[in-house]
């Protein structure tokens, strides 16, 4: 029975990872207010309550604004940084790129606290705008890591060829480089969006009185009667995440097929 | 997918390609106007001196090659002509105009890149038409131009294919069509055949020559493959360490290398040490190990490397003959020797022969090539042989 132990380990591992997530929809549709077995009956009340909750709606809107803004900001800035680091040489390149990547390993609570101190010191009022700034800082290293790979896998002659054929430097970039790194850009956008959406510490420190989804969920866990609503919210978030990942993977595979490169990894 | 052209017809042996060179071509080219002129061109990368005073004139309609080992500056020079690299000092003229402030996208040159740089997200036709984007002509005329360009490189009917699905040879052709559709004055080719396998490479060599004769524009080829340069070029500039060591027609380059380094780089050259006996005006009388005394006229004298102490006599493997001892032959001069090694190549055999010295010892082995004739025995290792040669095929490096 070679490999039997490994198989048991793999199954236990997957159960530990995904079984709790499978419980989310189970209790979201359970009519009992207590999160425990046995299940009572089927209901969609929790979903209607969720939609009716004004604070939750506000948290959702805030989270969407923050996630979309910081994803777009981090990816746009990431494009500049990734292109600069793969295409050009400049003084202190290693040091500068290293500093940009630091938030990847810095404890988040340190980043959140220092940002809070600085923002308060220079008198910026806490709002979703300050959360966007914090999340952009946090998402940048991930975006740059993804985009650098995309830019690095390009043959430098492609751009020169377009330039040689009469295009300007900008139109050569737009017509040749941009379409070829587009799968990387979409990946970076989705990755940043996901990171920002479930980020808690920075949102908790920098949002002031504005709720975001993670801070709202945290605040509601104290009240047992609102837990089923949280379950419903969790179910929606899981469904949306799966949908987004599927889209991202679809675009990534289409990009790979279109340029004839060999498929090397991806999300799924 | 088969290649669009019949490979049997075009895969001629490398040597046959030179016969496509029409008589009188060389004279016609000498009379043509200068297309590219470099005057004392220097290029530094920081402290690194990549181009050290390049002076050359490439004429309109010429197939010109820059040949040299990697790092000799040949690709840098090509990129200088294309406009991808600025020069540190000197002048580059294309068709009589100073290119100092003309960027690559405004020059009458187009480039075929070593990697082909085919745009993988476009179709073959979109790739070929890429340079026509800024062309004010109507859509129908552009489509016609694309078809014409594809026909020229033998890819008729491939327009709708995805560029990334093509084979190496087909990508090469798309890159050619994409560059030629703009009707440039000069086509620059950066090691265009190095990524192809041997058979495909020989086929493309012949096709490139035909294409160049057909369109009649100036081709500048960068290569490290001396055979490729000899087969295709009207003239070749051999480059070492950022400078041009010799610029000549292929025949001259091969038969009369001006320095030992050029002789070593192009083909195989045997070297035997020589001592100068006396100077008789322009002619030198030398005593060569294994060959005896030879009179060398000025035309057959080249320079040797500074590091070599003694003068050397050089000759090509095919410039001498080898026969079993005692077999009569009509060579002007004959020397005795022993076969050290035999390498059989099918059509040819290479013999490494040690030549007899006057003091009873033998020389270092020299390589002699003989075309195999059906029915003639190939001498064995250790056999005594006679080497027949002529002073006219000897070059003195002093």
TrEMBL record, chain A:
<feature type="transmembrane region" description="Helical">
    <location>
        <begin position="227"/>
        <end position="251"/>
    </location>
</feature>
<keyword id="KW-0812">Transmembrane</keyword>
<feature type="transmembrane region" description="Helical">
    <location>
        <begin position="128"/>
        <end position="154"/>
    </location>
</feature>
<keyword id="KW-1133">Transmembrane helix</keyword>
<dbReference type="GO" id="GO:0005886">
    <property type="term" value="C:plasma membrane"/>
</dbReference>
<feature type="transmembrane region" description="Helical">
    <location>
        <begin position="175"/>
        <end position="207"/>
    </location>
</feature>
<keyword id="KW-1003">Cell membrane</keyword>
<dbReference type="InterPro" id="IPR035906">
    <property type="entry name" value="MetI-like_sf"/>
</dbReference>
<feature type="transmembrane region" description="Helical">
    <location>
        <begin position="94"/>
        <end position="122"/>
    </location>
</feature>
<dbReference type="GO" id="GO:0055085">
    <property type="term" value="P:transmembrane transport"/>
</dbReference>
<dbReference type="Pfam" id="PF00528">
    <property type="entry name" value="BPD_transp_1"/>
</dbReference>
<feature type="transmembrane region" description="Helical">
    <location>
        <begin position="59"/>
        <end position="82"/>
    </location>
</feature>
<protein>
    <submittedName>
        <fullName>Spermidine/putrescine transport system permease protein</fullName>
    </submittedName>
</protein>
<dbReference type="InterPro" id="IPR051789">
    <property type="entry name" value="Bact_Polyamine_Transport"/>
</dbReference>
<comment type="similarity">
    <text>Belongs to the binding-protein-dependent transport system permease family. CysTW subfamily.</text>
</comment>
<dbReference type="InterPro" id="IPR000515">
    <property type="entry name" value="MetI-like"/>
</dbReference>
<keyword id="KW-0472">Membrane</keyword>
<feature type="domain" description="ABC transmembrane type-1">
    <location>
        <begin position="60"/>
        <end position="248"/>
    </location>
</feature>
<keyword id="KW-0813">Transport</keyword>
<feature type="transmembrane region" description="Helical">
    <location>
        <begin position="12"/>
        <end position="39"/>
    </location>
</feature>
Automatic annotation (TrEMBL), chain B:
<comment type="subunit">
    <text>The complex is composed of two ATP-binding proteins (PotA), two transmembrane proteins (PotB and PotC) and a solute-binding protein (PotD).</text>
</comment>
<comment type="function">
    <text>Part of the ABC transporter complex PotABCD involved in spermidine/putrescine import. Responsible for energy coupling to the transport system.</text>
</comment>
<dbReference type="GO" id="GO:0015847">
    <property type="term" value="P:putrescine transport"/>
</dbReference>
<dbReference type="InterPro" id="IPR050093">
    <property type="entry name" value="ABC_SmlMolc_Importer"/>
</dbReference>
<keyword id="KW-0472">Membrane</keyword>
<keyword id="KW-0547">Nucleotide-binding</keyword>
<dbReference type="InterPro" id="IPR008995">
    <property type="entry name" value="Mo/tungstate-bd_C_term_dom"/>
</dbReference>
<dbReference type="InterPro" id="IPR027417">
    <property type="entry name" value="P-loop_NTPase"/>
</dbReference>
<keyword id="KW-0813">Transport</keyword>
<keyword id="KW-0067">ATP-binding</keyword>
<dbReference type="InterPro" id="IPR003439">
    <property type="entry name" value="ABC_transporter-like_ATP-bd"/>
</dbReference>
<dbReference type="Pfam" id="PF00005">
    <property type="entry name" value="ABC_tran"/>
</dbReference>
<dbReference type="GO" id="GO:0016887">
    <property type="term" value="F:ATP hydrolysis activity"/>
</dbReference>
<dbReference type="Pfam" id="PF08402">
    <property type="entry name" value="TOBE_2"/>
</dbReference>
<keyword id="KW-1003">Cell membrane</keyword>
<dbReference type="GO" id="GO:0015417">
    <property type="term" value="F:ABC-type polyamine transporter activity"/>
</dbReference>
<dbReference type="InterPro" id="IPR013611">
    <property type="entry name" value="Transp-assoc_OB_typ2"/>
</dbReference>
<dbReference type="InterPro" id="IPR017871">
    <property type="entry name" value="ABC_transporter-like_CS"/>
</dbReference>
<comment type="similarity">
    <text>Belongs to the ABC transporter superfamily. Spermidine/putrescine importer (TC 3.A.1.11.1) family.</text>
</comment>
<dbReference type="GO" id="GO:0043190">
    <property type="term" value="C:ATP-binding cassette (ABC) transporter complex"/>
</dbReference>
<protein>
    <recommendedName>
        <fullName>Spermidine/putrescine import ATP-binding protein PotA</fullName>
        <ecNumber>7.6.2.11</ecNumber>
    </recommendedName>
</protein>
<keyword id="KW-1278">Translocase</keyword>
